[in-house]
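Study this chain:
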Amino acid sequence: MRQLITRIDDDLHTRLKELAGAEGTSMNALVVRALERVTGAAVDARTVVHRRARDAGMLVVPPRPDRVPSRDEVIASTGGAGAAVSEALSAERDTS
């Protein structure tokens, strides 16, 4: 990884710092994203979200399963969940 040192005026520095704080990211991450956009480096929305979560210490990567369950197994494992969610939402609405 390379390091870039540049001089910017105090006003720009302040605006960058405020923007990074508002986005919950570091100034470095903010500047890297801006440079990627300016240079045409393709960064999709998922990558942006992934980086922001990582920079904020909120990235959760679940472990990969040893085996991908079949469609039938997934359907069987979620049986009845729809009814439970509907009942919970209905109960929530009744108390509001």
Remarks:
- DSSP finds five helices and no strands in the chain.
- The helical segments are 10-23, 27-39, 45-55, 71-77, 81-95.
